[in-house]
Amino acid sequence: MRLLSWSMLLCICQQPTVDVCAQSARERAFDAAASASERGYEWLAWSSAHIGHRLTGSNQGRRAELLADSLFRASDLDTVFFEPFEAQAWSRGTVALTIGDAQGYLHVPCVALANTPLSCTTEAPIVDAGNGLPEDLDRLGSAVKGATLLVNLGLVAAAEGTTNLHRSEKAALALEHGAGAILFVNQVVGGVVLTGTASIDGSLIPIPAACLSIEDGTHLRERLAQGEALTARLTMRNNSDMVTARNVIGELRGTEHPDEIILVGGHLDSWDLATGATDNGLGSFSILDLARLMASMPFRPQRTVRFVLFMGEEQGLLGSTALAERYRDNGTLEHIGCMINLDMSGNPQGFGVCGPAGWRAVIQDACDRIRRIDTAAFEGRTSEEVWLHSDHEPFLLRGVPVIYPLSDLGKHIYGCYHSSCDDIHLVEPSAMTNNVRFVGALLYELAAASRLPGHFSQEDLKARLISEGLEQSLRIGGVWPWE
Asked: Nearest CA to 454 among 403, 405, 399?
C-alpha cells in the first residue's frame, strides 16, 4: 500500500506548477522502495562466500568484474559496459621476519605490503623512526642509511596539528633517505596486521616493507629504548604480472540533460587477506543496488547518472586514474558535473563536498530536503574537508567537484581495515540500505537542479589544496599538478 500511495501522489504532482511536490514525491517513492526491497547485502554476502577477495589481476578479481557486469545487466540499465585498462598487478607470496640480538633470533609475524620486491632478503640494524615523517627522518640523519626503519602507520605522540602521511608517502620518504627496509607498526590492538600498497604509483619499490602488530612493534621499541642492538632479517617472495583489468560501468540516461553526467563510483577490488566486505564491498555493492532500484522506478533522473565500479584502487588508484585520463583525452570530463565516491561508507549522516563556490550551498540544500524523508536516520550534516588516496582523487586533480557520504562505521570496523578480519560479519545490512536511500536521494536532487556549479579553475584548485595542507602529500606522490 505504501508504494501504491506514493505512485498515486506522484501522478497528482506531475503538473508543471508543482515541480517541488513532484520532486519530493519521487524521492519518497524511491526511499520506500529502497527501504522495502534492498538486495545489496544479499549480493555482498554471496560474493564473500563464493568469490572471496577481489584482488585486481587475480581470478577472484575477474570473477567480481563479471558478477558486477551481470548484476548491472539484470537491473536493466540503459547501458552497461567494461572499460579495460592495463595494470601491473602485484600479488603476495611468502614473507619471513627474524629479529636478531646478541643472544639469538626471534621470528615475528608480519604481512608484506603490496608493490614490494619480487625477491629480496635484507639484514640490517633496526632504527626507530617514530611516525616516519620528514622531521623524524631528518632527526635521525645518517642513521637511516641502510637501516630497517620502525615506523608508525598512525600518529603517536605527535604535536598538535601534525598531519599524518599515507604509508606509501612514508615509504617514499624512507627511500629518499636511503633506508634498506621498512617495518610499519599497526595501531590496532589484538595482534592485527594489515596490508596495503607501499607504492605511490603502483610500480614496485626497491626495498621490502612489511607490517607488524602494535604489540610486536611496542616490544621492539622497548628493547631499543633499553639500548639493545637489534637487527631485522626480512625475506620476501612476491609476484607481479601485467594484466588487463576492467572498470565496470552502468548508466541511466537523463531525460532532460542527457549530456550532463553525475558519476557515482566506488572501488570493487579488495585486498586478499579477507573478503573486503567493508573495504569496499560496503560501497560497491550499495552502488549495484542503487543502480537496480533507480532503474526500477517509473521515473528517470533528469541528468545522466553513471555508475562506476573501479578496479585497482588498492594498488594505487589504477582504474580511476585510467578512466579520468581517458575522459580528459576524449572530452567526457567536461560533461561530468561531479563525482560521488562511496569508499567504506555506511549509514550516511550527511555529505561532504570539495568544489568551487556554490557547491556547499547545493549540498546543504539537498541535505535539508533529504532530512525531511527521515529525520531520525539522517542528520543532514555537511563538510568541506578534502582528503586523498581514494578514487575521487584523479577526478579532483582534474578540477571535477567531488562528494562523499559522511559516515562513522565504528572502531570495530576501522580496526579491520586491510586485514584478515574484514569479512561479512562486520557489515550491518541497514548501513547498506541507508547508503542506497540517502545517496539515491542526493542523486535525484542533483539531477533535478536547475544548474550545477562548475568545475574548479586551476587557480582555485591549487589554492584549495594548499589551504587544506595537501601539497606535501601530492608532491611526495609525484602528482602535484603544478611546478
From this structure: 399
Which three three-digit cell numbers place residue 337?
Answer: 558535473
Taking only the tens place, the pLDDT of each residue in 159-177 is: 999 999 999 999 999 999 9
- The CATH fold assigned to 39-78+253-476 is Aminopeptidase (3.40.630)
Rounded to whole angstroms, what are the CA distances from 464 to 353, 354, 476, 480?
A: 12, 9, 18, 13
Q: Give phi and psi for 422, each to the nearest 5.
A: -80, 80
Amino acid at 333: L
Cell readout for 153 is: 602507520
Strand, coil or helix: what is 4? helix
H or E segment to which residue 125 belongs = strand 119-128
Q: Is residue 108 a contact partner of residue 98, using CB atoms and an 8 Å limit?
A: yes
Q: How far, in Å, CA of 110 to CA of 93, rounded?
A: 13
| Pairing relationship of beta strands 181-185 and 303-310 according to DSSP bridges | unpaired
Nearest to residue 379, comparing CAs of 368, 363, 393? 368
Q: What is the pLDDT of residues 138-152, one digit of tens each?
A: 999 999 999 999 999
Multiple choice CATH, 90-240, 3.20.20.60, 1.10.260.40, 3.50.30.30, 3.40.250.10: 3.50.30.30
